[in-house]
Amino acid sequence: MKRFLAKIVNLMKDENLFASQGGPIILSQVENEYGNVEPAYGVGGVLYVKWAAETAVQLNTTVPWVMCAQGDAPDPIINTCNGFYCDRFSPNSPSKPKMWTENYCGWFLAFGNAVPYRPVEDLAFAVARFFETGGTFQNYYMYFGGTNFGRTAGGPLVATSYDYDAPIDEYGFIRQLKWGHLRDLHLAIKQCEEYLVHSNPIQISLGVNLEAHVYYRSSNDCAAFLANYGSTSDGTVKFNGNSYFLPAWSVSILPDCKNVIFNTAKVASQKTSGDDVFTHITMLESSLASSAWSWHKEKVGIWGNNSFEASRLLEQINTTKDTTDFLWYSTSINVDEKIKQNQTKELGLLIGSLGHAALVFVNKKLVGFGYGNHDDASFVLAEKISLQSGSNTLDVLSMMIGLQNYGPWFDIQGAGIYSVILTHLKNSKEDLSSAQWTYQVGLEGEFIGLDNISLANSSVWTQGSDMPINQSLIWYKAIFLAPEGKGPVSLNLSSMGKGQVWVNGQSIGRYWSTYLSPSTGCSESCDYRGTYDASKCLKKCGQSAQTLYHIPRFWLYSGENLLVILEELGGDPSKISLLTRNAQVICGHVSEADFPPVDTWKPQLGFISQTPELRLACEEGWKIAAIRFASFGTPGGYCGAFSQGGCHANVSSIVQQACIGKQRCSVPISTTKLGDPCLNVPKSLAIEALCSG
Length: 693
Hints:
With 693 residues, the chain is mainly beta.
């Protein structure tokens, strides 16, 4: 570790990348969240933290070092906060700044779990509270979602998508309204910058769960944050002689201690339609049903001369060295007694596994499939089996789905089969755990490289009109043409079971479409008010965690492309499709009571205009092609399903004139501009537009 740290630091120094050298690096980090597991290591953990800190400081990066979630970080290392909220965090020394190194925008996805998301109102509240209470540095985790290509996903059972409900999604598209609301939040905080760096905040109680933090530059020159940290009741507070309405679980920002330019609960940024990147309105789908499919049936059990034997059950990770997800455990079961012709002996088979999944074959026929979950990857598989007189084969294919990558002692947590027991009709048991077992690392298709382009025309592939479907352990191959355009591409694998996929020899990851999340625990809307955790806001209950898989455009050729699939459980590849996004539905809903845009606020001058605006913007390279809905008055509904209210003015022509053919546009929320369909009624403007490239 010492050599590794020195190597990285010297690489940075050689390129003049540290701030003291004129470069962009202002901070260094050693270790990550070790404090969460340190108690498990006793005095060794304490000594290790001290050693790691001393080793880092000796490298003399000339910029500060931090340790994330490390309350006992020795001076001068700065201990920082990771979590959903860090406003109540204090570093372990008054000489250290209050820093938030990981603010979770959402949470990771696991096969078999519902999809977690975090409302932007809560996320913005957490950030505003942090800076309100003296925070100096805040970093989003993740700001740009990603993809765990290949076998790089953590585990156990962490999905291929690492979208994380981030402001920029897995495909590189802006996720609205999260991105826009956070942009406005930081513009508002930026307006307070000179005050935030000039003094520490003065806390003022304004009532039950109501308070202000004021930053003074002089006795009559200040910026303030007004907070309602109660989760149920809205409130009205008196501050500096003025009244301010504070929704529950919200913060208002006053850069001049008088005018509110932003409230975390009032979202005026645009929204994109639908939860998914690819919706029926905006996607172009290309079926692979007409493709010429080829297949190769994987051999069950031992397939090569590089197998080996042991008279015990071996732990999987130490056996495979993580070169593959698969390990075959094979043995024979001898039935001495004579059995009548065409009859079999019924037995019970009990298999215990440390994880993560396993296929069980008796006499080369599939008899069972067992699996764990993200929280507990271990499982016990109980099956009734039928044996013939004489020798019978038992083949167990144990599967990994990501290596454990967090928690104490994760480096020695094992996987694979640890117990195999036969139970007879009279409840007598036969323990096969110490029998003679033959092992084979990996699958034959992996060994010969069926995922490689070089084997695309190999005779090992079978081609015909009668493609086998819904079979376990089978490889499929097809040639497809890349969708038109330059945008990212998604592979819809909802018709498949569990396996891995390659495009032009590049692995796009593991899939498991048939592992459905629990049917309960989700809601159409999640109340942002109150403390958030990873299980609070869930969607897609009773569905697969992931069915769409990201294919980076630069992995595709302009002509023919090779798709290879290893299907482990059974699926129908003829129903696979390619999706690409050729349009985008964007929406806005802004009321007369909303604030003017934050970027129109100027110090000493205030808002350039007191009129709120509804702003729309397409992704770069796209323009607004159509206005699908436009109503000023009391419109209802939501993006994708707006409806006219009892008070309605059709403002489509006004919006079309302002927006059609433009990448971005703005419409003032003004009766002077839009007319007044109902006097003395609070009104709002709702617009739904279509962007295309």
